[in-house]
């Protein structure tokens, strides 16, 4: 058994209201998995290698549960547009370029490296309609040791001619994609209908059959805007809510169901999501950039729904999930100010929990340092001013608000130190 021990200020969130802090302590890792945390190294581990990080902060790596890998190249562009103009002028033309594999490879190489650089080791990624490019992204994440879900996007209506599929072609290409990646390890396939307004009912029902055949889940946008929620029900008459479209097709029965934004959920949407253990992904920067509204995070969490964080690049302008932790707190304050009867401000502890343990739960035992969890970790430094000491919690909060990748001094996946070169 390979044993390594790491010393530092150790911090993680076993629950949304619980911050576990072990300052000046040791975390013992056996075969890449956390064994215990202690103030002194136990006698039976006296011969093991100890990596001493002094008073640096050791935290779990982040999970991004909604990000468009294909939009990485357009991050921070067109942010003065509203959603429809942004999609038509920037996103759709740019995504169409992924038919060119040279373009796709350069884009996805940069995207994966930047996730790792910023401490995102687990990601649920939208690709494009192009199967070959999506295969490359899947393989690149696997090669780098990441945990992930990657979806080949489906869209067969209400989309530009240069970025639309025939229904039968979309299903055939998707099945080939699923089949080619059966038996993969830490990166898995997921079905990715873009959202209900760009998918016909035959396409959604066909994807449901593929979900049953290949036992995979679904990743899409849900009630992101008032328009989207209304348009979905207009195009799917006889359905009672946006979530019901995916439930009735069987898309929520065989794997994780991950829904981005969930800003305007009805009681029926929430009932369905809770029934299936779905994750709703809060994407704070994107929410502001596309003027969609603010997820009722605290209310949904209090009702027992699972919440995760997403960068939503390029609707969100930055890849760093730790910045979304800070932004989630900020937006909760705004929502409470304007809707005091319905909303409450969240804590940094709760936001960090949604970005680590709860988001990580979809990948297995990642996102925490409890016994049995993978040692997927970041070592954070240089958060203190030289003349003033800070607690571990204060270091975490400052990192989320003003830190960047230069403050990440070491990165570990399954106990293995990643190269600092990306």
Automatic annotation (TrEMBL):
Designated name of the protein: Amidohydrolase family protein
Keywords: Hydrolase, Metal-binding, Zinc
Gene3D superfamilies, sorted: Metal-dependent hydrolases, Urease, subunit C, domain 1
Pfam families: Amidohydro_1
All residue ranges annotated as the Amidohydrolase-related domain in the record: 58-417
Organismal lineage: Bacteria, Bacillati, Bacillota, Clostridia, Lachnospirales
Organism expressing this protein natively: Blautia wexlerae
Annotated InterPro entries: Amidohydro-rel, Metal-dep_hydrolase_composite, Metal_Hydrolase, Metallo-dep_hydrolases
Domain of life: Bacteria
Cofactor: Zn(2+)
């Amino acid at each position: 058994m390979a044993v390594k021990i790491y010393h530092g200020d150790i911090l993680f969130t076993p629950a949304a209201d619980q911050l576990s802090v072990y300052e000046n302590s040791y975390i013992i890792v056996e075969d890449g998995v956390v064994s215990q945390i202690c103030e002194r190294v136990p006698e039976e581990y006296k011969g093991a290698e100890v990596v001493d990080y002094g008073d640096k902060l050791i935290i779990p790596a982040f999970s991004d549960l909604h990000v468009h890998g294909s939009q990485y190249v357009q991050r921070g562009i067109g942010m003065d547009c509203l959603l429809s103009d942004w999609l038509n002028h920037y996103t759709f033309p740019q995504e169409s370029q992924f038919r060119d594999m040279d373009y796709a490879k350069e884009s996805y190489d940069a995207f994966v490296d930047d996730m790792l650089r910023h401490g995102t080791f687990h990601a649920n990624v939208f690709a494009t309609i192009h199967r070959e490019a999506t295969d490359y992204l899947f393989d690149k994440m696997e090669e780098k040791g990441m945990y992930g879900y990657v979806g080949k996007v489906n869209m067969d209506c209400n989309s530009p001619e240069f970025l639309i599929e025939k229904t039968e072609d979309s299903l055939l290409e998707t099945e080939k994609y699923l089949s080619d990646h059966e038996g993969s390890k830490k990166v898995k396939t997921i079905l990715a209908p873009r959202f209900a307004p760009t998918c016909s009912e035959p396409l959604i029902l066909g994807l449901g059959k593929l979900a049953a055949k290949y036992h995979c889940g679904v990743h899409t946008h849900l009630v992101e805007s008032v328009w989207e929620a209304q348009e979905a029900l207009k195009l799917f008459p006889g359905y009672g809510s946006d979530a019901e479209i995916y439930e009735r097709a069987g898309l929520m029965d065989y794997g994780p169901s991950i829904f981005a934004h969930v800003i305007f959920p009805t009681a029926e949407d929430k009932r369905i999501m809770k029934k299936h253990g779905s994750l709703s992904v809060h994407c704070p920067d994107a929410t502001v950039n596309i003027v969609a509204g603010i997820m009722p995070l605290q209310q949904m969490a209090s009702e027992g729904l699972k919440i995760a964080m997403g960068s939503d690049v390029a609707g969100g302008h930055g890849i760093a999930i730790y910045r979304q932790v800070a932004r989630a707190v900020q937006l909760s304050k705004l929502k409470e100010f304007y809707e005091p009867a319905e909303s409450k401000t969240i804590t940094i502890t709760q936001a960090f929990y949604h970005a680590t343990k709860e988001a990580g739960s979809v990948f297995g035992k990642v996102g925490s340092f409890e016994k049995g969890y993978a040692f997927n970790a970041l070592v954070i430094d240089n958060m203190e001013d030289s003349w003033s000491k800070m607690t571990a919690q204060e270091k975490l909060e400052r990192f989320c608000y003003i830190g960047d990748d230069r403050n990440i001094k070491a990165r570990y996946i399954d106990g293995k130190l990643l190269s600092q070169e990306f």
